[in-house]
Amino acid sequence: MQILHAESLKQRNTLHLDARAQLLVSAADEREVIAALDYARAQGLPVVPMGEGSNVVLAGDLAALVLCQSAQQIQLLAEHTDAVRLRVSAGYGWHALVQACLARGWHGLENLALIPGQAGAAPIQNIGAYGVEVERFVEAVHGVYIETGEAFVFSTGECQFGYRDSIFKRNLRDKAVVTAIDLRLSTRRQVHVVYPALEQELQSRGVDDPAPVDVFDAVVAVRSRRLPDPAREPNAGSFFKNPVIGGDQAHALRQAAPAMPAYEQADGSVKLAAAWLIEQCGFKGHREGDVGMHGDHALVLVNSGSATGKEVLAYAGVVIDAVRERFGVALEMEPRVYGT
Ligand SMILES: Cc1cc2nc3c(=O)[nH]c(=O)nc-3n(C[C@H](O)[C@H](O)[C@H](O)COP(=O)(O)OP(=O)(O)OC[C@H]3O[C@@H](n4cnc5c(N)ncnc54)[C@H](O)[C@@H]3O)c2cc1C
């Protein structure tokens, strides 16, 4: 197990923010994860599990042991008549996993193509796109408690998945390292096309009866067109969650702004489009120094040069204040903040 000291994380986060990890370990398997946790405990340091850094804001250096995982295995656990069960190690790249499953005829993940990050991070915020969330496929999450090094296995129900949410962001925040996930995927030609942009893309390609590969291709095309590539324009994807508000407040807002997109939820609450709120406040394409909201996508905060994490957070605060003042709606940041 190699332990790196004062390691730069600039190339390890998609916003390309400059920050250092006091210690950085890349663990090859669960045994090394447990050894790294023991080491951190002996040094009196907190542990920060990190994947590809595509959903974090590094506000400054991390007085912590940053724990990365490199294990990349797909283990076929069982084959049923119309489904397979797999165990995927945490270090597997998410998009590579989607591609590998598609190539083997294991279906379901196509809508989640091109989401950056590792498989181990997928259950943390229950990644979702184009009408599908990963919880639909997760059978179990395997991991290790940071404090004790003891292993755990959680069922889907125990993960308490929600919109961009799970137990790992709540009760188990900073307490658990995910080492593998078990997925159940279909071997039938099943697709899930309910999202307008996806439907339109398939229509424009003349596909009436899409196969999983068609959905995959369409998702990749739409995302490539709409979302800036972090390699060229450093960003962390959607920077704010879509706010969910009460039905009464939504009704009042729609009276004042009939064009406001609003999606009623099963429990009567209403989900708003954060991008629309931000755009209405004039932030689409707006920039202050090296930080700003993208010109084509108001929800994507971009570091267009050498912005610091603190500048990113200050700008995010300005956006949050403006939306609160204009609409009375509280925006919440999606990425997790680390470092001081
Ligand atoms: C261009 C772009 C597009 C995106 N599109 C989407 C999208 O469509 N839908 C969506 O849901 N998200 C999207 N994201 C956000 C991001 O890709 C996902 O949240 C992804 O799952 C993060 O993976 P990661 O490996 O980069 O995690 P990191 O950013 O490294 O970590 C994120 C959080 O998870 C924790 N974590 C990571 N790995 C582990 C582990 N093994 N055990 C315990 N905790 C862990 C970290 O401590 C941190 O709190 C996008 C991001 C970008 C840059």
TrEMBL record:
NCBIfam families: murB (TIGR00179), PRK00046.1 (NF000755), PRK13903.1 (NF010478). Its EC number is 1.3.1.98. The active site is at R164, S238 (proton donor), E334. One of its GO terms (molecular function) is FAD binding. The keyword Flavoprotein applies. This is UDP-N-acetylenolpyruvoylglucosamine reductase. Its cofactor is FAD. SUPFAM superfamilies: FAD-binding/transporter-associated domain-like (SSF56176), Uridine diphospho-N-Acetylenolpyruvylglucosamine reductase, MurB, C-terminal domain (SSF56194). The keyword Zinc-finger does not apply. InterPro entries: FAD-bd_PCMH, FAD-bd_PCMH-like_sf, FAD-bd_PCMH_sub1, FAD-bd_PCMH_sub2, MurB, MurB_C, MurB_C_sf, Oxid_FAD_bind_N. It comes from Halioglobus japonicus. Pathway: Cell wall biogenesis; peptidoglycan biosynthesis. It catalyses: UDP-N-acetyl-alpha-D-muramate + NADP(+) = UDP-N-acetyl-3-O-(1-carboxyvinyl)-alpha-D-glucosamine + NADPH + H(+). PANTHER family: UDP-N-ACETYLENOLPYRUVOYLGLUCOSAMINE REDUCTASE. One of its GO terms (biological process) is peptidoglycan biosynthetic process. Cell wall formation. It is found in: Cytoplasm. It holds the Pfam family MurB_C. Belongs to the MurB family. Its main location: cytoplasm. Residues 17-188 form the FAD-binding PCMH-type domain. GO terms for cellular component: cytosol. Keywords: Cell cycle, Cell division, Cell shape, Cell wall biogenesis/degradation, Cytoplasm, FAD, Flavoprotein, NADP, Oxidoreductase, Peptidoglycan synthesis.
